[in-house]
Every structure is written in structure tokens, then in C-alpha cells.
Amino acid sequence: MGDNERLAREILEKVCETDEIFEDYEMDLVDEGFIDSFALLSVILEIEKRTGLKLQPTDIKKEDISSINSLIKFLENNR
Length: 79
Prior knowledge:
The chain is mainly α and about 80 residues long. The protein has helices spanning about 5-15, 35-50, 70-79.
């Protein structure tokens, strides 16, 4: 498991408060009700805290965290 995958898993497990999300890395976490607008802000704060990146709410969209794979890709492109 790479660093971005580990980080994505840790952040999403904390924000979603479940490990059910790991059953399918392509599961749409928004459609399944695991992520809402408040969770999006929590993800941004966790990314900033763990990586030192400074993000604005407009820097990350729901599509960027709609699945574990999409957050991994976002982290790969922005770290």
C-alpha cells in the first residue's frame, strides 16, 4: 500500500466513521450517503493537517472524494 492510498484510507475512515467503505474502492461515497457537504470540509481539514497543504473549499470537489480511488488520485496530483 502506497503513502497516498494509506492517507486516503485513514482520512476517509475517520470522516466516514466506518470501514465499510473499503469493500469497494470505486464505491460512490456521496451516493451511498457516507459523504455530505460537512464531510467534504472535514476531508479538506484532514488533508491540510496531515500534508501541510493549504486548500480552499473550491480546491476540492465532491468528485475528488467520491471514492477512495478518486481521493488517492487527488492526493497524487496535489502533494
